[in-house]
């Protein structure tokens, strides 16, 4: 096919065949095979059908072969210079993704790949394709997720840090007859929380809701040493629910001289009812409020997240009795597992 590839002497073709046999790169071998098929009289489309590639790829290989000869068949990407996705580029991209577009002069509140491409071009002078940006985001393990709403703590940072350090010191200096627990309440809704789930292509799962919502409330205390959870249930989230939990703690830890309770600043924890109850507990219970809006410092919050993930999110129970049975089963199973782990640690 002289119109597609130039004719070559027999000796040149034999040399090319020997180099082809020694080559281990699949891409380069494909380039050689395209030229060999054209030399054997096949058209571009016929060669493409034999090699299972697109015909435009065959024509592009042939054109480069006419222009540069056999050297064009070898992958020349190593001669393209330094890769665009260098370690410095990926490190800067990671910093950009962790920030917001407004910090870089954009009015849009969320990142898109196109916006990241433009931002990185302004910072580095390197412009990449959107698909290359997808590969770069995968290399830094970036993901699309739901942001978490937060409220800033009104305390001065130094006061907040000092308070948190005091609580951490308390947790690390407990005597044998002292107990420390993390306390919090959680709402159980009959109308399910909707969360992410795996689905088939073209499928959107339905979660049938009962319609009229019902609520139950749990007050829990997580033992800082053993990880065992103690909880009580109630129809209302009020001071009486919290007092029931404190009573249970005095029974469970009957031999403890002092029970430290780390908790948030919810109003039911500082009501007159609780103040009177603390006097009747012979000062065995001491409350330690966290700084406002610091849920990450309360370890029991993770337990409630696991409870929602394993029980209440996307649930299909139609009655509160069925849902609460699932809640109790999960919490009891978790408590048994925590006890086994605590015993194993004590024996080690």
Number of helix segments? Answer: 12
Share of residues in helices: 40-55%
Number of domains: 3
Compute the CA-based radius of gyration.
33 Å
What's the level 1 CATH class of the largest domain? Alpha Beta
Uncertain runs with pLDDT below 50, 5 residues or more? none
Q: Characterize the biggest β-sheet.
A: 5 strands, mixed
CATH T-level fold name of the largest domain:
Nucleotidyltransferase, domain 5
Separation of the first and last Cα atoms: 79 Å
In CATH terms, what is the architecture of the largest domain?
Answer: 2-Layer Sandwich
What string gives the helices and strands in order? HHHHHHHHEEEHEHEHH
What general form does the structure show? elongated
Please state how the strands of the largest beta sheet are arranged side by side.
3-2-1-4-5
Which range does the strand content fall in?
5-15%
Q: What structural class do helix, strand and pairing data support?
A: alpha/beta
Round the mean pLDDT to the nearest integer and report it: 89
Full CATH superfamily name of the largest domain: Ribonuclease H-like superfamily/Ribonuclease H
Number of strands: 5
